[in-house]
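=== RUN LOG ===
request id: a7f3
mode: sequence -> structure
chains: 1
length: 543
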Amino acid sequence: MRDWFNKGEHWIWLSSAMVALSVVLVFGLFAMISYKGMVHFWPHHVYEYQVSNGQQLEPVVGELRDAKIKEVPSDAGMQEIPQLLIKMGNRDVYGIDFRWISSDTLVSTEPKIAENAVVIERYEYGNVYGWYDRFTLDGTTVQDAELEQLLQQQVAKGKALFDEIRQIEKYEIGAVNYKLEQLRLDEKRLKAEGKWNAEQEQRLAQKRDELNAQFREFQQQTQVLYEQQKTLGELTMKISGGQTLKVPVKNIVDYWQPNEMTLLDKTGFFFHGIGRFLTEDPREANTEGGIFPAMIGTITMVLIMTILVTPMGVIAAIYMREYAKDGPVLRAVRISINNLAGVPSIVFGIFGLGFFVYVLGGSIDELFYGYALPSPTFGTPGLLWASLTMALLTLPVVIVSTEEGLSRIPRALREGGLALGATKIEVISKIVLPMALPAMMTGLILAIARAAGEVAPLMLVGVVKLAPELPVDSIAPFVHLDRKFMHLGFHIYDVGFQSPNVEASQPLVYATSLLLVLIIVGLNLGAISIRNRLREKYKALEH
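=== RESULT ===
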Protein backbone atom coordinates (compact mmCIF):
# COMPACT_ATOMS: atom_id res chain seq x y z
CA MET A 1 0.00 0.00 0.00
CA ARG A 2 2.85 2.36 0.83
CA ASP A 3 4.42 1.71 -2.59
CA TRP A 4 1.03 2.38 -4.18
CA PHE A 5 0.87 5.79 -2.49
CA ASN A 6 4.51 6.56 -3.22
CA LYS A 7 3.99 5.91 -6.92
CA GLY A 8 1.17 8.46 -6.90
CA GLU A 9 -1.41 6.06 -8.32
CA HIS A 10 -3.99 7.28 -5.81
CA TRP A 11 -3.92 10.68 -7.51
CA ILE A 12 -4.66 9.00 -10.84
CA TRP A 13 -7.67 7.19 -9.38
CA LEU A 14 -8.84 10.35 -7.62
CA SER A 15 -8.59 12.35 -10.86
CA SER A 16 -10.49 9.64 -12.74
CA ALA A 17 -13.19 9.61 -10.07
CA MET A 18 -13.59 13.38 -10.27
CA VAL A 19 -13.84 13.25 -14.05
CA ALA A 20 -16.42 10.47 -13.84
CA LEU A 21 -18.39 12.42 -11.22
CA SER A 22 -18.32 15.55 -13.39
CA VAL A 23 -19.57 13.59 -16.40
CA VAL A 24 -22.38 12.04 -14.34
CA LEU A 25 -23.42 15.46 -12.99
CA VAL A 26 -23.39 17.06 -16.44
CA PHE A 27 -25.39 14.28 -18.05
CA GLY A 28 -27.70 14.13 -15.06
CA LEU A 29 -28.41 17.84 -15.33
CA PHE A 30 -28.99 17.54 -19.07
CA ALA A 31 -31.29 14.54 -18.57
CA MET A 32 -33.35 16.39 -15.94
CA ILE A 33 -33.72 19.49 -18.12
CA SER A 34 -34.58 17.33 -21.13
CA TYR A 35 -37.26 15.39 -19.27
CA LYS A 36 -38.80 18.45 -17.64
CA GLY A 37 -38.68 20.37 -20.91
CA MET A 38 -40.02 17.66 -23.21
CA VAL A 39 -42.83 16.58 -20.90
CA HIS A 40 -44.25 20.08 -21.29
CA PHE A 41 -45.31 19.21 -24.85
CA TRP A 42 -46.70 15.74 -24.11
CA PRO A 43 -50.50 15.56 -23.59
CA HIS A 44 -51.21 14.83 -19.92
CA HIS A 45 -54.09 12.68 -18.71
CA VAL A 46 -57.01 14.52 -17.17
CA TYR A 47 -58.15 13.11 -13.82
CA GLU A 48 -61.22 13.67 -11.69
CA TYR A 49 -60.75 13.91 -7.93
CA GLN A 50 -63.34 14.05 -5.14
CA VAL A 51 -62.15 16.37 -2.39
CA SER A 52 -63.85 16.44 0.99
CA ASN A 53 -64.04 19.85 2.62
CA GLY A 54 -65.65 18.56 5.81
CA GLN A 55 -69.32 18.82 4.92
CA GLN A 56 -69.59 17.98 1.23
CA LEU A 57 -67.61 16.61 -1.68
CA GLU A 58 -66.02 18.97 -4.18
CA PRO A 59 -65.07 17.61 -7.61
CA VAL A 60 -61.72 18.77 -9.02
CA VAL A 61 -60.82 18.04 -12.65
CA GLY A 62 -57.39 18.64 -14.12
CA GLU A 63 -53.88 17.40 -14.86
CA LEU A 64 -51.56 15.99 -12.20
CA ARG A 65 -48.43 18.13 -12.54
CA ASP A 66 -46.41 17.52 -9.37
CA ALA A 67 -46.39 15.74 -6.01
CA LYS A 68 -44.49 16.26 -2.78
CA ILE A 69 -44.50 15.03 0.80
CA LYS A 70 -45.52 17.38 3.58
CA GLU A 71 -44.88 16.66 7.26
CA VAL A 72 -47.73 17.62 9.60
CA PRO A 73 -47.98 17.15 13.37
CA SER A 74 -50.27 14.42 14.69
CA ASP A 75 -50.93 12.52 17.91
CA ALA A 76 -48.28 9.95 16.91
CA GLY A 77 -45.72 12.61 16.04
CA MET A 78 -44.88 13.97 12.61
CA GLN A 79 -46.90 12.37 9.83
CA GLU A 80 -45.99 12.44 6.12
CA ILE A 81 -48.91 13.31 3.87
CA PRO A 82 -48.59 13.43 0.06
CA GLN A 83 -49.58 16.71 -1.60
CA LEU A 84 -50.75 16.80 -5.23
CA LEU A 85 -50.44 19.80 -7.58
CA ILE A 86 -53.42 19.83 -9.94
CA LYS A 87 -53.65 22.07 -12.98
CA MET A 88 -57.38 22.64 -13.08
CA GLY A 89 -57.40 25.62 -15.47
CA ASN A 90 -60.63 27.59 -15.84
CA ARG A 91 -58.87 30.63 -14.38
CA ASP A 92 -61.75 32.97 -15.24
CA VAL A 93 -63.99 30.83 -12.99
CA TYR A 94 -61.70 29.84 -10.11
CA GLY A 95 -59.26 32.76 -10.18
CA ILE A 96 -56.30 30.35 -10.16
CA ASP A 97 -55.43 27.50 -12.48
CA PHE A 98 -53.20 25.45 -10.11
CA ARG A 99 -54.21 23.99 -6.75
CA TRP A 100 -52.44 21.91 -4.12
CA ILE A 101 -54.58 19.08 -2.73
CA SER A 102 -53.70 17.10 0.39
CA SER A 103 -54.19 13.36 -0.03
CA ASP A 104 -55.96 13.09 3.34
CA THR A 105 -58.83 15.15 1.90
CA LEU A 106 -59.33 12.81 -1.07
CA VAL A 107 -62.19 10.33 -1.02
CA SER A 108 -60.03 7.89 -3.01
CA THR A 109 -56.28 7.95 -3.36
CA GLU A 110 -56.56 6.30 -6.78
CA PRO A 111 -57.12 8.99 -9.43
CA LYS A 112 -60.08 8.49 -11.71
CA ILE A 113 -59.65 9.06 -15.45
CA ALA A 114 -62.07 11.73 -16.61
CA GLU A 115 -63.56 10.01 -19.65
CA ASN A 116 -64.15 12.17 -22.75
CA ALA A 117 -62.62 15.17 -20.97
CA VAL A 118 -61.59 18.00 -23.26
CA VAL A 119 -58.68 20.43 -22.85
CA ILE A 120 -59.04 23.77 -24.61
CA GLU A 121 -56.09 26.14 -24.89
CA ARG A 122 -57.15 29.78 -25.08
CA TYR A 123 -55.41 33.01 -25.96
CA GLU A 124 -56.46 34.35 -22.55
CA TYR A 125 -57.15 32.86 -19.12
CA GLY A 126 -55.28 29.63 -19.77
CA ASN A 127 -56.78 26.20 -20.37
CA VAL A 128 -60.34 24.99 -19.98
CA TYR A 129 -60.94 21.49 -18.56
CA GLY A 130 -64.37 19.97 -18.96
CA TRP A 131 -66.77 18.21 -21.29
CA TYR A 132 -68.64 19.25 -24.41
CA ASP A 133 -72.14 20.52 -23.73
CA ARG A 134 -73.34 22.33 -26.84
CA PHE A 135 -72.14 24.50 -29.71
CA THR A 136 -74.04 27.56 -30.87
CA LEU A 137 -73.60 29.00 -34.36
CA ASP A 138 -75.89 31.60 -35.92
CA GLY A 139 -78.59 30.83 -33.37
CA THR A 140 -78.46 27.09 -34.06
CA THR A 141 -77.39 24.69 -31.31
CA VAL A 142 -75.76 21.34 -32.03
CA GLN A 143 -74.49 18.54 -29.78
CA ASP A 144 -72.68 15.19 -29.80
CA ALA A 145 -71.03 14.12 -33.08
CA GLU A 146 -72.22 17.16 -35.02
CA LEU A 147 -70.65 19.38 -32.35
CA GLU A 148 -67.17 17.92 -32.78
CA GLN A 149 -67.27 18.15 -36.56
CA LEU A 150 -68.55 21.72 -36.56
CA LEU A 151 -66.09 22.75 -33.84
CA GLN A 152 -63.18 21.43 -35.89
CA GLN A 153 -64.25 23.46 -38.91
CA GLN A 154 -64.81 26.66 -36.95
CA VAL A 155 -61.56 26.43 -34.99
CA ALA A 156 -59.66 26.02 -38.27
CA LYS A 157 -61.38 29.14 -39.59
CA GLY A 158 -60.61 30.96 -36.35
CA LYS A 159 -56.90 30.13 -36.59
CA ALA A 160 -56.78 31.34 -40.19
CA LEU A 161 -58.50 34.61 -39.23
CA PHE A 162 -56.18 35.11 -36.25
CA ASP A 163 -53.09 34.56 -38.40
CA GLU A 164 -54.40 36.99 -41.02
CA ILE A 165 -55.16 39.65 -38.41
CA ARG A 166 -51.73 39.16 -36.86
CA GLN A 167 -50.07 39.46 -40.27
CA ILE A 168 -51.84 42.72 -41.01
CA GLU A 169 -51.45 44.31 -37.57
CA LYS A 170 -47.89 43.27 -36.84
CA TYR A 171 -46.29 43.49 -40.27
CA GLU A 172 -48.44 45.56 -42.65
CA ILE A 173 -49.65 48.19 -40.19
CA GLY A 174 -46.30 48.00 -38.39
CA ALA A 175 -44.51 48.89 -41.62
CA VAL A 176 -46.85 51.83 -42.23
CA ASN A 177 -46.33 53.13 -38.68
CA TYR A 178 -42.57 52.84 -39.11
CA LYS A 179 -42.68 54.87 -42.33
CA LEU A 180 -44.92 57.50 -40.73
CA GLU A 181 -42.44 57.83 -37.88
CA GLN A 182 -39.61 58.25 -40.38
CA LEU A 183 -41.57 61.03 -42.10
CA ARG A 184 -42.02 62.77 -38.76
CA LEU A 185 -38.28 62.57 -38.10
CA ASP A 186 -37.51 63.77 -41.65
CA GLU A 187 -39.67 66.82 -41.02
CA LYS A 188 -37.87 67.59 -37.76
CA ARG A 189 -34.50 67.11 -39.47
CA LEU A 190 -35.34 69.43 -42.34
CA LYS A 191 -36.57 72.10 -39.94
CA ALA A 192 -33.44 71.76 -37.82
CA GLU A 193 -31.23 72.11 -40.92
CA GLY A 194 -33.18 75.12 -42.23
CA LYS A 195 -34.25 73.25 -45.38
CA TRP A 196 -37.95 73.21 -44.63
CA ASN A 197 -39.99 74.92 -47.36
CA ALA A 198 -43.31 74.64 -49.13
CA GLU A 199 -41.98 72.05 -51.58
CA GLN A 200 -40.74 69.77 -48.80
CA GLU A 201 -43.96 70.28 -46.89
CA GLN A 202 -46.02 69.28 -49.92
CA ARG A 203 -43.80 66.25 -50.60
CA LEU A 204 -44.04 64.93 -47.06
CA ALA A 205 -47.76 65.70 -46.86
CA GLN A 206 -48.34 63.68 -50.03
CA LYS A 207 -46.40 60.70 -48.66
CA ARG A 208 -48.16 61.01 -45.32
CA ASP A 209 -51.56 61.01 -47.03
CA GLU A 210 -50.61 57.88 -48.98
CA LEU A 211 -49.49 56.10 -45.83
CA ASN A 212 -52.58 57.20 -43.90
CA ALA A 213 -54.71 55.85 -46.74
CA GLN A 214 -52.88 52.52 -46.51
CA PHE A 215 -53.33 52.55 -42.74
CA ARG A 216 -57.09 53.11 -43.05
CA GLU A 217 -57.32 50.35 -45.64
CA PHE A 218 -55.50 47.87 -43.41
CA GLN A 219 -57.61 48.99 -40.46
CA GLN A 220 -60.78 48.35 -42.42
CA GLN A 221 -59.51 44.90 -43.35
CA THR A 222 -58.86 44.04 -39.72
CA GLN A 223 -62.30 45.34 -38.72
CA VAL A 224 -63.88 43.02 -41.26
CA LEU A 225 -61.81 40.11 -39.94
CA TYR A 226 -62.75 40.95 -36.34
CA GLU A 227 -66.43 40.94 -37.32
CA GLN A 228 -65.94 37.55 -38.97
CA GLN A 229 -64.39 36.26 -35.74
CA LYS A 230 -67.59 37.12 -33.88
CA THR A 231 -69.58 34.86 -36.20
CA LEU A 232 -67.45 31.76 -35.55
CA GLY A 233 -69.76 30.54 -32.82
CA GLU A 234 -69.55 29.74 -29.14
CA LEU A 235 -68.79 26.49 -27.34
CA THR A 236 -70.42 25.76 -23.98
CA MET A 237 -68.41 23.46 -21.71
CA LYS A 238 -69.45 21.54 -18.61
CA ILE A 239 -66.83 21.99 -15.91
CA SER A 240 -66.40 20.50 -12.45
CA GLY A 241 -69.11 21.23 -9.92
CA GLY A 242 -71.89 21.16 -12.51
CA GLN A 243 -71.07 24.64 -13.78
CA THR A 244 -70.92 25.69 -17.43
CA LEU A 245 -68.40 27.91 -19.16
CA LYS A 246 -68.88 29.61 -22.51
CA VAL A 247 -65.82 29.71 -24.76
CA PRO A 248 -65.99 31.81 -27.95
CA VAL A 249 -64.27 30.04 -30.84
CA LYS A 250 -62.20 33.16 -31.57
CA ASN A 251 -60.41 32.63 -28.23
CA ILE A 252 -59.48 28.99 -28.91
CA VAL A 253 -55.86 28.24 -29.81
CA ASP A 254 -56.16 24.46 -29.84
CA TYR A 255 -58.15 21.65 -28.22
CA TRP A 256 -57.63 17.95 -27.60
CA GLN A 257 -58.93 14.94 -25.65
CA PRO A 258 -55.79 13.49 -24.01
CA ASN A 259 -57.52 10.51 -22.39
CA GLU A 260 -58.81 9.30 -25.76
CA MET A 261 -55.53 9.73 -27.68
CA THR A 262 -53.54 6.82 -29.04
CA LEU A 263 -49.75 6.74 -28.83
CA LEU A 264 -49.56 7.91 -32.45
CA ASP A 265 -51.90 10.81 -31.70
CA LYS A 266 -49.84 11.82 -28.69
CA THR A 267 -46.62 11.69 -30.69
CA GLY A 268 -48.08 13.93 -33.39
CA PHE A 269 -49.38 16.32 -30.73
CA PHE A 270 -45.91 16.33 -29.13
CA PHE A 271 -44.09 17.43 -32.29
CA HIS A 272 -46.85 19.88 -33.16
CA GLY A 273 -46.40 21.48 -29.73
CA ILE A 274 -42.64 21.79 -30.25
CA GLY A 275 -43.23 23.46 -33.62
CA ARG A 276 -45.63 25.96 -32.09
CA PHE A 277 -43.19 26.62 -29.24
CA LEU A 278 -40.46 27.54 -31.72
CA THR A 279 -42.59 29.66 -34.06
CA GLU A 280 -45.18 31.49 -31.92
CA ASP A 281 -44.96 34.66 -29.85
CA PRO A 282 -45.26 34.50 -26.05
CA ARG A 283 -48.61 35.12 -24.38
CA GLU A 284 -50.00 35.66 -20.89
CA ALA A 285 -46.98 37.50 -19.42
CA ASN A 286 -44.63 35.06 -21.21
CA THR A 287 -46.06 32.05 -19.31
CA GLU A 288 -47.66 30.58 -22.44
CA GLY A 289 -47.08 30.54 -26.17
CA GLY A 290 -43.73 30.34 -27.93
CA ILE A 291 -40.28 31.88 -27.86
CA PHE A 292 -39.81 32.93 -31.48
CA PRO A 293 -38.90 36.60 -30.72
CA ALA A 294 -36.42 35.53 -28.02
CA MET A 295 -34.81 33.03 -30.37
CA ILE A 296 -34.47 35.61 -33.17
CA GLY A 297 -33.11 38.20 -30.76
CA THR A 298 -30.51 35.79 -29.35
CA ILE A 299 -29.32 34.67 -32.78
CA THR A 300 -29.15 38.25 -34.13
CA MET A 301 -27.23 39.54 -31.11
CA VAL A 302 -24.75 36.64 -31.23
CA LEU A 303 -24.12 37.08 -34.97
CA ILE A 304 -23.48 40.83 -34.62
CA MET A 305 -21.25 40.17 -31.61
CA THR A 306 -19.27 37.65 -33.66
CA ILE A 307 -18.76 40.16 -36.46
CA LEU A 308 -17.50 42.72 -33.93
CA VAL A 309 -15.30 40.53 -31.71
CA THR A 310 -13.54 38.50 -34.43
CA PRO A 311 -11.42 41.26 -36.02
CA MET A 312 -10.68 42.89 -32.65
CA GLY A 313 -9.54 39.68 -31.00
CA VAL A 314 -7.57 38.29 -33.96
CA ILE A 315 -5.77 41.56 -34.75
CA ALA A 316 -4.89 42.10 -31.08
CA ALA A 317 -3.50 38.56 -30.80
CA ILE A 318 -1.47 38.90 -34.02
CA TYR A 319 0.08 42.15 -32.85
CA MET A 320 0.96 40.76 -29.41
CA ARG A 321 2.45 37.53 -30.76
CA GLU A 322 4.03 38.61 -34.05
CA TYR A 323 4.94 42.30 -33.73
CA ALA A 324 5.13 43.49 -30.12
CA LYS A 325 8.45 43.20 -28.34
CA ASP A 326 8.52 41.14 -25.18
CA GLY A 327 8.84 43.34 -22.13
CA PRO A 328 7.06 44.62 -19.04
CA VAL A 329 4.40 46.45 -21.05
CA LEU A 330 3.44 43.36 -23.05
CA ARG A 331 3.43 41.20 -19.93
CA ALA A 332 1.19 43.75 -18.20
CA VAL A 333 -1.20 43.69 -21.16
CA ARG A 334 -1.37 39.88 -21.07
CA ILE A 335 -2.01 39.92 -17.33
CA SER A 336 -4.76 42.51 -17.84
CA ILE A 337 -6.40 40.39 -20.54
CA ASN A 338 -6.34 37.30 -18.32
CA ASN A 339 -7.78 39.29 -15.42
CA LEU A 340 -10.42 40.75 -17.72
CA ALA A 341 -11.73 37.24 -18.35
CA GLY A 342 -12.47 36.93 -14.63
CA VAL A 343 -14.39 40.19 -14.21
CA PRO A 344 -18.08 39.59 -13.30
CA SER A 345 -20.31 39.98 -16.32
CA ILE A 346 -22.56 42.55 -14.61
CA VAL A 347 -19.55 44.91 -14.51
CA PHE A 348 -19.42 44.75 -18.31
CA GLY A 349 -23.12 45.57 -18.36
CA ILE A 350 -22.58 48.64 -16.19
CA PHE A 351 -19.68 49.73 -18.40
CA GLY A 352 -21.79 49.19 -21.52
CA LEU A 353 -24.62 51.25 -20.07
CA GLY A 354 -22.34 54.04 -18.90
CA PHE A 355 -20.00 54.27 -21.89
CA PHE A 356 -21.67 52.71 -24.93
CA VAL A 357 -25.23 53.88 -24.23
CA TYR A 358 -24.86 57.21 -22.45
CA VAL A 359 -21.51 58.47 -23.74
CA LEU A 360 -21.13 56.95 -27.21
CA GLY A 361 -24.84 56.67 -27.98
CA GLY A 362 -25.56 60.13 -26.62
CA SER A 363 -22.74 61.58 -28.73
CA ILE A 364 -24.11 59.86 -31.86
CA ASP A 365 -27.54 61.32 -31.15
CA GLU A 366 -26.12 64.81 -30.76
CA LEU A 367 -24.04 64.56 -33.94
CA PHE A 368 -26.46 62.80 -36.30
CA TYR A 369 -29.89 62.68 -34.66
CA GLY A 370 -30.08 66.03 -32.92
CA TYR A 371 -33.38 66.77 -34.65
CA ALA A 372 -34.98 63.78 -32.86
CA LEU A 373 -33.92 64.88 -29.37
CA PRO A 374 -34.98 64.69 -26.60
CA SER A 375 -36.21 61.28 -27.82
CA PRO A 376 -33.04 59.14 -28.02
CA THR A 377 -32.17 57.06 -31.04
CA PHE A 378 -28.90 55.40 -30.05
CA GLY A 379 -28.65 56.99 -26.62
CA THR A 380 -30.80 54.25 -25.16
CA PRO A 381 -30.20 50.51 -24.68
CA GLY A 382 -30.48 48.57 -27.92
CA LEU A 383 -29.19 45.75 -30.09
CA LEU A 384 -25.92 47.47 -31.09
CA TRP A 385 -24.86 48.26 -27.53
CA ALA A 386 -25.78 44.79 -26.30
CA SER A 387 -23.67 43.25 -29.07
CA LEU A 388 -20.72 45.55 -28.30
CA THR A 389 -20.95 44.78 -24.59
CA MET A 390 -20.94 41.03 -25.25
CA ALA A 391 -18.05 41.46 -27.70
CA LEU A 392 -16.06 43.18 -24.96
CA LEU A 393 -17.03 40.43 -22.52
CA THR A 394 -15.83 37.63 -24.82
CA LEU A 395 -12.80 39.46 -26.24
CA PRO A 396 -10.28 37.88 -23.79
CA VAL A 397 -11.38 34.38 -24.87
CA VAL A 398 -10.76 35.14 -28.53
CA ILE A 399 -7.42 36.88 -27.87
CA VAL A 400 -6.04 34.12 -25.64
CA SER A 401 -7.14 31.26 -27.90
CA THR A 402 -5.81 32.99 -31.03
CA GLU A 403 -2.49 33.79 -29.37
CA GLU A 404 -2.16 30.20 -28.16
CA GLY A 405 -2.79 28.99 -31.69
CA LEU A 406 -0.17 31.34 -33.10
CA SER A 407 2.39 30.24 -30.52
CA ARG A 408 2.06 26.61 -31.65
CA ILE A 409 3.10 27.39 -35.22
CA PRO A 410 6.76 26.27 -35.70
CA ARG A 411 9.25 29.13 -36.02
CA ALA A 412 10.87 27.31 -38.96
CA LEU A 413 7.77 27.91 -41.11
CA ARG A 414 8.02 31.65 -40.57
CA GLU A 415 11.75 31.68 -41.32
CA GLY A 416 11.24 29.52 -44.40
CA GLY A 417 8.65 31.90 -45.80
CA LEU A 418 10.86 34.90 -45.17
CA ALA A 419 13.85 33.10 -46.74
CA LEU A 420 11.84 32.53 -49.91
CA GLY A 421 11.27 36.28 -50.26
CA ALA A 422 7.81 36.63 -48.75
CA THR A 423 7.06 39.68 -46.64
CA LYS A 424 6.10 39.30 -43.00
CA ILE A 425 2.47 40.11 -43.67
CA GLU A 426 2.38 37.48 -46.44
CA VAL A 427 3.88 34.87 -44.12
CA ILE A 428 1.34 35.68 -41.42
CA SER A 429 -1.69 35.79 -43.73
CA LYS A 430 -0.84 32.78 -45.94
CA ILE A 431 1.03 30.43 -43.59
CA VAL A 432 0.59 31.33 -39.93
CA LEU A 433 -3.08 32.34 -39.80
CA PRO A 434 -4.43 29.32 -41.77
CA MET A 435 -2.59 26.96 -39.43
CA ALA A 436 -3.86 28.84 -36.37
CA LEU A 437 -7.47 28.66 -37.56
CA PRO A 438 -8.37 25.64 -35.38
CA ALA A 439 -7.54 27.52 -32.18
CA MET A 440 -9.11 30.72 -33.48
CA MET A 441 -12.37 28.99 -34.40
CA THR A 442 -12.51 27.16 -31.10
CA GLY A 443 -12.08 30.39 -29.16
CA LEU A 444 -14.67 32.13 -31.30
CA ILE A 445 -17.29 29.41 -30.84
CA LEU A 446 -16.64 29.30 -27.10
CA ALA A 447 -17.15 33.06 -27.05
CA ILE A 448 -20.43 32.63 -28.93
CA ALA A 449 -21.55 29.94 -26.50
CA ARG A 450 -20.84 32.19 -23.54
CA ALA A 451 -22.58 35.16 -25.10
CA ALA A 452 -25.65 33.06 -25.82
CA GLY A 453 -26.02 32.20 -22.14
CA GLU A 454 -25.25 35.54 -20.48
CA VAL A 455 -28.10 37.45 -18.87
CA ALA A 456 -26.86 40.00 -16.32
CA PRO A 457 -25.15 42.52 -18.67
CA LEU A 458 -27.92 42.29 -21.26
CA MET A 459 -30.51 43.44 -18.74
CA LEU A 460 -28.80 46.84 -18.74
CA VAL A 461 -27.98 47.34 -22.42
CA GLY A 462 -30.94 46.29 -24.53
CA VAL A 463 -32.87 43.17 -23.52
CA VAL A 464 -36.52 43.58 -22.50
CA LYS A 465 -39.31 41.35 -21.25
CA LEU A 466 -41.40 41.72 -24.41
CA ALA A 467 -40.35 43.51 -27.60
CA PRO A 468 -43.18 44.70 -29.86
CA GLU A 469 -40.91 44.52 -32.93
CA LEU A 470 -38.24 42.10 -34.04
CA PRO A 471 -34.70 43.45 -34.50
CA VAL A 472 -34.72 41.90 -37.98
CA ASP A 473 -37.56 42.43 -40.45
CA SER A 474 -38.32 43.18 -44.08
CA ILE A 475 -38.13 46.98 -43.66
CA ALA A 476 -34.88 48.69 -44.68
CA PRO A 477 -32.25 48.67 -43.23
CA PHE A 478 -33.57 45.18 -42.24
CA VAL A 479 -31.35 44.95 -39.14
CA HIS A 480 -32.40 47.67 -36.69
CA LEU A 481 -29.48 48.24 -34.35
CA ASP A 482 -31.34 50.78 -32.23
CA ARG A 483 -34.19 48.44 -31.24
CA LYS A 484 -34.56 46.59 -27.98
CA PHE A 485 -34.91 42.83 -28.26
CA MET A 486 -35.72 39.62 -26.41
CA HIS A 487 -33.14 37.03 -25.35
CA LEU A 488 -33.50 33.37 -24.35
CA GLY A 489 -31.41 33.77 -21.19
CA PHE A 490 -33.39 36.76 -19.98
CA HIS A 491 -36.61 35.02 -20.99
CA ILE A 492 -35.72 32.14 -18.65
CA TYR A 493 -34.97 34.57 -15.83
CA ASP A 494 -38.16 36.55 -16.37
CA VAL A 495 -40.46 33.54 -16.65
CA GLY A 496 -38.85 31.66 -13.80
CA PHE A 497 -38.46 34.46 -11.25
CA GLN A 498 -40.71 37.36 -12.29
CA SER A 499 -43.78 35.47 -13.44
CA PRO A 500 -47.12 36.13 -11.68
CA ASN A 501 -47.99 32.44 -12.17
CA VAL A 502 -45.00 30.41 -11.00
CA GLU A 503 -46.55 26.95 -11.43
CA ALA A 504 -47.64 27.67 -14.99
CA SER A 505 -44.23 29.01 -15.94
CA GLN A 506 -42.09 26.12 -14.65
CA PRO A 507 -42.52 23.82 -17.70
CA LEU A 508 -41.74 26.74 -20.01
CA VAL A 509 -38.57 27.50 -18.04
CA TYR A 510 -37.29 23.96 -18.54
CA ALA A 511 -38.27 23.91 -22.23
CA THR A 512 -36.50 27.22 -22.90
CA SER A 513 -33.47 26.10 -20.88
CA LEU A 514 -33.28 22.91 -22.93
CA LEU A 515 -33.33 24.90 -26.16
CA LEU A 516 -30.57 27.20 -24.91
CA VAL A 517 -28.47 24.23 -23.77
CA LEU A 518 -28.92 22.54 -27.14
CA ILE A 519 -27.79 25.72 -28.93
CA ILE A 520 -24.67 25.95 -26.76
CA VAL A 521 -23.90 22.23 -27.12
CA GLY A 522 -24.36 22.50 -30.88
CA LEU A 523 -21.97 25.42 -31.08
CA ASN A 524 -19.36 23.54 -29.08
CA LEU A 525 -19.74 20.43 -31.22
CA GLY A 526 -19.35 22.63 -34.27
CA ALA A 527 -16.15 24.05 -32.80
CA ILE A 528 -14.74 20.58 -32.23
CA SER A 529 -15.66 19.49 -35.75
CA ILE A 530 -14.10 22.58 -37.38
CA ARG A 531 -11.00 22.27 -35.24
CA ASN A 532 -10.48 18.61 -36.13
CA ARG A 533 -10.92 19.19 -39.86
CA LEU A 534 -8.49 22.11 -39.88
CA ARG A 535 -5.95 20.16 -37.84
CA GLU A 536 -6.06 17.31 -40.35
CA LYS A 537 -5.67 19.77 -43.20
CA TYR A 538 -2.53 21.43 -41.81
CA LYS A 539 -1.04 18.44 -39.98
CA ALA A 540 1.51 17.85 -42.76
CA LEU A 541 2.82 21.41 -42.50
CA GLU A 542 3.36 21.07 -38.74
CA HIS A 543 5.77 18.19 -39.34
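=== NOTES ===
The longest strand covers residues 57-74.
Residues 292-542 form a domain with the MetI-like fold fold (CATH 1.10.3720.10).
=== END ===
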